[in-house]
Design brief:
single chain, Cyclic-di-GMP_PDE-like, about 25% helix, six-stranded antiparallel β-sheet, Tumour Suppressor Smad4, alpha/beta, TIM Barrel, EAL_dom, 2 domains, Cyclic-guanylate-specific phosphodiesterase
Length: about 400
């Protein structure tokens, strides 16, 4: 258990472990890929990156191990890793306190892959892969908001021990303020990861951002399948996911779990690479009877071209465009009203996000928004509060 809860901003260096450096001939023969471990070799040390250069690669307390792990619960020779081209096998060597893959203890040689979390008693590492020619002498990474040695442990708790929860924020009709649906938002109570920004920043540093995004949608589907459908459920995607061919299949699976709920997938503006990709993505969603929303409209680059060429089902106007609208300039109101009218002319439903007071909400209703979302209409809450069983 962590005794000092003070959060620090630290720099740590992922140093390449040069033990057992191969000869030039060996290096040439093994150019196809290099596997490495990122993690801390003791509870007191910073994170290091160690290239798996030996076959097999042994880990343990022994000075003869390829990677020496300095912790009392580590066995002399704790485990070994065998790499054969693209195949990586992790084998426990009869350790006292166990070897784990993504939180599950292994007793037999187990295949592992890029991004897996490998735990040797109390010490955890992430397995990574790089092309041989990409190897740096060292790599530095700044960790903002937490001590480096806790990064892997914390994300392990989030992803594989499911220590996160989903909050649901109401989206209401501008016409009569009735419930149109809810947006699912990930939350975490682990110190240093309470805000979604901190959570995804840490996941991104470990290459787990898409896994976290997918896990949040799966949890949403599992939770809401127990509740009567209340029209639409809006779920988020990470910008890195749009080009992942597995995304459509994953969305189809949760759509099946949700049953009568109408699934709406939100795409952040940073996720739109080109018109053809988003056009194909929209068609794939519609083939599955899933709707598309452009999120954070107006927060950055203009989406007018996308709105014209690939109109979504919904456009969510960023809070920067509607917050303080009631006290803003007439020019600001006119611009927002024109954009809302453009969407209406193209059968796109509009959502005003970030409404925190009645004045902004009333003006958004007057200028023609279809739907409203913000603290004034309901804060993100756990399912038991937002979705009572009735």
């Amino acid at each position: 258990m962590r005794s000092n809860t003070t959060i620090h901003k630290v720099n740590f260096m992922l140093k390449i472990n040069q033990q057992n450096t191969p000869s030039e001939n060996e290096h040439t023969q093994r150019r196809e890929a290099s596997w490495f471990l990122d993690g801390c070799c003791s509870l007191e040390s910073n994170a290091t990156r160690t290239i798996l250069r030996s076959e097999p690669f042994k880990l343990g307390r022994s000075p003869e191990a390829d990677l020496i792990l300095n912790a009392n619960d580590i066995s002399k020779f704790h485990a070994e890793i065998i790499t054969v081209g693209e195949v990586v096998i992790l084998k426990d060597l009869g350790s006292t306190n166990g070897t784990y893959v993504n939180g599950c203890r292994i007793t037999e040689p187990t295949p592992v892959g890029e991004g897996d979390l490998l735990q040797f008693a109390s010490l955890e590492f992430q397995l990574g892969r790089m092309e041989e020619q990409q190897q740096p002498d060292y790599h530095t990474c700044e960790v903002d908001g937490m001590e480096s040695r806790w990064m892997i442990t914390q994300m392990h708790q989030v992803l594989y021990q499911k220590q996160f929860w989903m909050a649901y924020q109401p989206i209401v009709s501008a016409k009569d303020l009735s419930r149109h649906g809810v947006e699912a938002l990930i939350r975490c109570d682990i110190p240093g990861l309470q805000s979604p920004f901190q959570l995804f920043q840490t996941a991104t540093q470990l290459g787990l951002e898409t896994s976290l995004s997918e896990a949040s949608r799966v949890k949403t589907a599992e939770e809401l399948s127990q509740f009567p459908a209340q029209s639409c459920i809006f779920v988020n995607t990470h910008p890195h996911e749009l080009l992942d061919t597995r995304l459509i299949d994953a969305l189809n699976e949760i759509n099946q779990i949700l049953g009568p709920w109408k699934l709406v997938v939100e795409i952040h503006e940073a996720a739109v690479p080109d018109l053809q990709t988003i056009r194909e993505f929209k068609q794939s969603l519609h083939d599955l009877e899933i709707q598309l929303a452009y999120d954070d409209f107006g927060a950055g680059q203009s989406r007018l071209l996308e709105l014209i060429e690939v109109p979504p089902d919904y456009v969510k106007f960023d809070r920067a465009m509607v917050d303080g609208l009631a006290t803003g300039s007439s020019r600001q109101v006119s611009i927002v009203e024109s954009l809302v009218q453009f969407c209406r002319d193209n059968q796109i439903q509009t959502i005003a996000e970030g409404i925190d007071n009645e004045q902004d909400g009333n003006l958004c209703r007057e200028i023609g928004f279809d739907l409203l979302q913000g603290f004034f209409y309901g804060r993100p809450e756990k399912r038991e509060t937002t979705l009572p069983l009735k």
